[in-house]
């Protein structure tokens, strides 16, 4: 925890992150954003030859789609909803009185049709399903979105609102497994290009509850999830900065995604935690980008 606080305080002192009073919710400086912009361009260069379809979703998604995804069965502890005032004039007066008295004015808020996006790929599957069967060869998509997960922490690498860049492959089992393997190799090469230490290991998602522990074990046993790990605030417990996930036919069955041959499609994705990668770069190369090693600056700024 001391190493986490130390890095976080140094980032605050340097003005790279801006404190808001809420753990895991930070402003970012121009220098911090520039690193993310440059690194995203590097991701794009590594994936350019694949000609993925670029789609950018907002940080909120259709509540009905969220409910249909099954996310709440596995990760209720991470979900965030959007509520709003929906009352009359009298309700408004009561709300203001409640606030003046220091009460909990949020009890009068009602759920809207929007929930906060938990992962960049979640709005994609119902979108592609509406198009009908996939074209021959399946589909490949380039996504980026702000995402929300309710896990406040002093660890700067565990933000509540953060950006995720993803490539998602939808198609036959062989095609999506090949895609994941390709990006596991590319991911290592990409991170080594900016001179960060890297390790890839099998992993699991933070499934909730007793049943979740069984799901986590199954995920590991089947090698469905790998993570690319970089030490950010701890060498003993490095941070997952990229993830490589094979969902099998989960989303295909959930949304009725079909291949051109009418079979249920499988899906896989590679996800880049953009803030985490920027933090890793600052942690390893220093808080002033002008002092970063020349090969790193060349890779990012040309």
UniProtKB/TrEMBL annotation:
> Which terms does the record give in the GO molecular function aspect?
aminoacyl-tRNA ligase activity
- Which UniProt keyword terms apply here? Aminoacyl-tRNA synthetase, Ligase
Record's NCBIfam families?
PRK07080.1
Spell out the protein name for this chain.
Putative seryl-tRNA synthetase, SerRS-like protein
